[in-house]
Structure of ApoA-I-binding protein 2:
Amino acid sequence: PVSSRQAFPLPSLPRKQPTVLVVCGPAQNGAIGLVCARHLRIFDYEPTIFYPKRSPDPLYRDFTTQCEKMDIPFLSYLPTEVQLINDAYNAVVDAVLGAEAEAGEGREPCAAILATLKHVRIPIVSLDVPSGWDVEAGSSGGISPDVLVSLSAPKQCARRFLGRQHFVAGRFLPYDVQKKFELNPPKYPGTECVVAL
């Protein structure tokens, strides 16, 4: 059997109140956030999604529908009062911008979301690239996540990550892709799809 830690590496998240706010942007990283929320629900977490600018892409719409059919609630707005977020959730999943950071940290609703996330006190888990970070150079006033989950392989900016834990989820990468990009993936023990770096 697969444990929840294999699917979502948050060993510090207590099971008594396993609430997670998944904040999704309009592009690919937002779609990954929707998939993350679905997996959290499967492993008995209680995700809530904030997805203010929904993509018209049919695949992303399907992910949204799957989450709705799993009774995952969607917030109509993100509270600007940070204490409300701190009190309601045990962690935030940052799936706002990711590697498509050039999509515009300064554009709404992303700028307002990042302004709020910079002040939360609960752990932030960023998917692939922390929102507001340059993919190559790293943080330039973006958020400071506690956990980074690199997808496929760590991006250049991961060298500047100073949080508690860094994981990579890339076991699924085909060998020819690994060879083409000269990736040296870590060993994944057993059937785990995520490994700590």
